[in-house]
Amino acid sequence: MTAPMSGSQPQVAKPAATPTAAGDIPFHVPRGNRVHRYGRGDKLVVSLMIVVPTVLVLGLVWGPALASVLLSFTNWDGIGGLGTIKFIGLKNYHDVITIYPPFKPAIQHNLLWLGFLFVLPTVFGMFLAVLLDKEIRGSRFYQTALYLPIVLSLALTGFIWQLIYSRDQGLLNAVLGTHIDWYGDPKVNIWAVLVAASWKHTGYIMLLYLAGLKSVDPSLREAAAVDGASEARTFFGIIFPVMRPINVIIVVVTVIESLRAFDLVWVINRGRNGLELISTLVASNVIGEASRIGFGSALATIMLVVSTVLIGIYLPTLMRENK
User: Whole-structure pTM over 0.90, yes or no?
Assistant: First the structure.
């Protein structure tokens, strides 16, 4: 055996790198030896993925929203350059509340729309979701049939309900033996439109709630069954509280749907003769015959404020649930 040389330091063997699941490469790599995986092309792609959506959101959402708020304090008919815009302060808001007759019925109709959607299609959609969650026979067919109205175009939806509500050749009058003008009579046309809107809203709520029910832990139902709880008690005592985030989403969606209700009403009679809504008033003043950009922007700002309040209530609740 050869003795170590005097004055030399003893050689200490370095421990071998522990193999990892990825191979023989050590898991911990010194900072100076790390390999930069992203090249210039990758950085460019990532930058574009961030910048392009941000520009689109700012230009198509926040830009028009901010412009509407600013224009609501002005008097402008949309003709001429920006130099023709006159600042008038809160006069548009004062006129909306005091001397604009369609505003009060529009508020009433939006509230009626909200209450009707909550009482009938929202509750009915949740009920259908609970039934379909039981995996009954033909559940896939029922899901498709109930969701089909959502994917139909506005023109086709209006045509279908026109066939049902037609005064002379409509299906409803033929069944009832009446000659009611469901779209023309201001006493009944709002209810006719609400039924048509509920036809689409029910399927949407059903899909949202069914997705929430599928995510519920099955052990909760099993524990309730062991304790002898009925299905109704299990749902209202366990399942419904667990699905609080979905319930909040459904509430916010229903409120927003009632505020932005526009398409069917505009197709029927442009929001007149008993079908006044805030959204149709905005369209009538901005793109209609009046062409009062500032006045219509004030109406739009009122809708924006109400929607922002609802979102401000919804987001903190959702974040607390996620925590």
Answer: no
Compute the residue count for the chain: 323
Burial per residue of 27-41, b for 16 or more beta-carbon CB atoms within 10 angstroms, e otherwise: eeeeeeeeeeeeeee
pLDDT per residue over 118-137, tens digit each?
A: 889 999 999 999 888 887 78
pLDDT the model gives residue 23: 47
91-322 CATH fold = MetI-like fold (1.10.3720)
Q: Can you give the residue ranges of every domain in the chain?
A: 91-322
- Residue 25 banded pLDDT, cuts 50, 70, 90: very low
51-109 pLDDT, tens per residue? 999 999 999 988 988 998 999 999 988 777 778 888 999 999 999 999 999 999 998 99
Tokens of 283: 């369209």
Question: Are the C-beta atoms of residues 191 and 161 closer than 8 Å to each other?
Answer: no
Nearest to 71 by CA among 48, 52, 92: 92
> 146 near 121, Cβ under 8 Å?
no
Average pLDDT, the chain: 82
CB within 8 Å of 256: residues ≥ 6 apart: 307, 310
CB burial of residue 122 (10 Å; 0-12, 13-18, 19+): buried
84 Cβ partners below 8 Å, 6+ apart?
A: 76
